[in-house]
Amino acid sequence: MKVLRCCLYSILSLIFSTTTFSYPMDSIHWNHRSIVFFAPEKDEHVKAFMMQTLMNDCLLQERDIRTLVITKDGFNKPANLFSPEDIRHLRKKYKIKGNDHTTILIGKDGLEKHRWGETTNWIFITELIDKMPLRKVEMTSRPSRCSA
């Protein structure tokens, strides 16, 4: 009986893993904010974006932001999160043109909040997020742990 219960818990945890529900395709509510960077290939702009996400990690974590990189040539970060079909769906949903660099901020409500090109102004993005009603509530319950 104990072995059966353990197996059942293992199966349920796989079915209901956090990754499974982290990026719902058409959910009404997401459990985090996302910044999705679409690019034609893994170029200098993609490398700069990934470096900047590391440099701004505390600010991103504090605002509950997950970053994604999706390139047309098949590079994805994090890798293996989406199937090719999922990526096609995202490109279509957000109307991503062929060789453009497009970055999109998606709120916890699953809606697009802001869109920009290949260069990210992290100060502007964090200030934009901090003006959002849900983020204001979060800031009252959790003081900042990041140095400015």
Q: Can you describe this structure in just a few lines?
A:
The protein is built from seven helices and five strands; from the N terminus they run H-H-E-H-H-E-E-H-E-E-H-H. It has 148 residues and is an alpha+beta fold.
What this model shows, in words?
Helices cover 44% and strands 18% of the residues. It is built from seven helices and five strands, in the order H-H-E-H-H-E-E-H-E-E-H-H. The chain has 148 residues and is of the alpha+beta class. The longest helix is centred in the N-terminal third of the chain and has 14 residues. The protein has a single domain, classed as Glutaredoxin, CATH 3.40.30.10. Strands 3-2-1-4-5 form a five-stranded mixed beta sheet.
CATH architecture name? 3-Layer(aba) Sandwich
Number of helices in the DSSP assignment: 7
* Annotated CATH homologous superfamily: Glutaredoxin
Strand content: 15-25%
Biggest β-sheet description: 5 strands, mixed
Q: What's the SSE pattern?
A: HHEHHEEHEEHH
- Whole-angstrom Rg: 17 Å
- Helicity level: 40-55%
Low-confidence stretches: 4-24
Given the helix and strand composition, which structural class is it?
Answer: alpha+beta
Per DSSP E runs of 2 or more residues, the count of β-strands stands at 5
Strand order of the largest sheet: 3-2-1-4-5
Level-1 CATH class name: Alpha Beta
